[in-house]
Amino acid sequence: MGEALKLLEIQETPLDSYLALSEKIKDIVTEVHQQFQSGNLTVKDLKGHHTADEVAIERIKKYLAAINIQANIHIEGHEPITQGNDPELSIYIDPVDGSLNRDLGVGNPACVIAMTMNKKPKLKDLQFGYVFDLHAGNTYYSHNNEAYCIPTGETEAVPIKCDSGATKVQDAIIYINSGYGRKFAMQELLKTGVLRLMAKHVNSFDNSAMEICQMARGAAHLRVESRSYTENNVMKGSDHANLLAAMTIGKAAGLYTTDLQGNSLEDETIDIDQVQDFICCSNPELLKDAIRVIKRNRWLLLKHIFTGMMSK
């Protein structure tokens, strides 16, 4: 119990405790990934856990068991683990958000962690969020409704806030993804594809955590996830793990997160593997405009295509 005491009791504040534990988990992930050569795609399941992920997950489990931390532990793609007698602390871990990017040696894959002193929390109950950029080395975290960034090579945390200046889709910088194969791409096209044709600029890292952290520091205004679909009665697509950064760091930086109809996700009970399309947005007026566009997506998409053909 000694190291657990250091992490969760001897630390001066709850924030120190959360950060200490997150840094240790991050160190395990980075150590494992340094042992695996990146730049090679060796798996067929583009959206699944890759070899390095599984090794990291097993080492995280062993570490948390070794320090006997009293917690409900939720790791993406794995069954929940309860350590201790009816513990209050809940920990959510996505060791690598962006496994495909990590394997290919591109983009900004990230280690994502969220915590709260609540046995069965809703998304609104999350008290702490942590994201570490595995390639660039930047750290983002939130606590007590404040969001921070520690740039690579620095030791001081810098407060961050989103850019709420854009109120219309046509003025917005948007992150929108269509990756992981044709079925995912088709869903994104049919649900929200016209946003690509209407936005001021479109960008993509293809992993939610870093896109949301970039939004939290003002680099974009809107992030849309709309790739979910059902196959053989199984929902596939982005899951609650991809909302951890939005409902902690993003929320603290001023971002709003809803489903594609504009309904708040705050009261959703967290299920780290539950599939969920969502919008993350820096301004309530922009959110309204984006939802208006999404509701008319197919008609507007056809209109833009027809207009483009006629102009040739």
What does this molecule look like?
The chain is of the alpha+beta class and 312 residues long. Helix content is 35%, strand content 21%. The protein is globular. Residues 1-12 and 39-46 have low confidence and may be disordered.
| Intertermini distance | 72 Å
Task: Estimate percent helicity.
Answer: 25-40%
Which architecture of the largest domain does the CATH hierarchy give at level 2?
2-Layer Sandwich
Annotated CATH homologous superfamily of the largest domain: Fructose-1,6-Bisphosphatase, subunit A, domain 1
DSSP strand tally: 15
Helix-strand pattern, N to C?
A: HHHEEEHEEEEEEHHEHEEEHEEHH
Classify the fold: give the CATH topology of the largest domain. Fructose-1,6-Bisphosphatase, Chain A, domain 1
Radius of gyration: 19 Å
CATH class of the largest domain: Alpha Beta
- Low-pLDDT parts are 1-12, 39-46
- Coarse structural class: alpha+beta
Number of domains: 2
Key words describing this protein structure:
disordered N terminus, 2 domains, five-stranded mixed beta sheet, 312 residues, alpha+beta, 15 strands, D-Maltodextrin-Binding Protein, domain 2
Question: How would the blueprint of this fold be written?
Answer:
Elements: H1 2-10, H2 14-34, H3 51-66, E1 71-75, E2 81-83, E3 89-97, H4 99-104, E4 110-117, E5 128-133, E6 139-143, E7 146-150, E8 158-159, E9 173-176, H5 182-192, H6 195-198, E10 201-203, H7 208-216, E11 222-225, E12 229-231, E13 234-236, H8 246-252, E14 256-258, E15 278-281, H9 284-295, H10 297-310
Parallel strand pairs: 1-3, 9-10, 9-11
Antiparallel strand pairs: 1-2, 3-4, 4-5, 5-6, 6-7, 7-8, 11-15, 12-13, 14-15
Helix pairs in contact: 1-2, 2-3, 7-8
